[in-house]
Specification:
Strand order of the largest sheet: 3-4-5
Helix content: 25-40%
Number of strands: 5
Strand content: 5-15%
Order of helices and strands: EEEHEHEH
Shape: globular
Radius of gyration: 14 Å
Length: 125
Amino acid sequence: MNSVALGASGLQVTPICLGTMTFGEQVNEASAHTILGRSLERGVNFIDAAEMYSVPAKAETCGATETIIGNWFAKHPGAREKLVVATKVAGPARGMPWMRPEVSKAGIIEACEGSLRRLQTDVID
């Protein structure tokens, strides 16, 4: 699959990005792992996640998507190096008391550290 520049980042990504917001709610871990593997086999190198996924946002599934992706990375050595992983920090927690009430420098750092831990990686692209 062809790749395109991701803005001025220097990263090359496929024009198709695998959205993972349903991993952990509508899509169970085994199915998510199958989807991740098939996407990589088909040449997709770009994965989108977020600390608050899966959706709909619930306390019990917060971070589940990143955990599922991280577990897949652990089972597939070398896969992480082939992929560009994007994730997002949740904004102010409107009606979600399990999330931070406001965005701050410390909160962003904490969110990124949590994402790195769940994704079982050293870098968020």
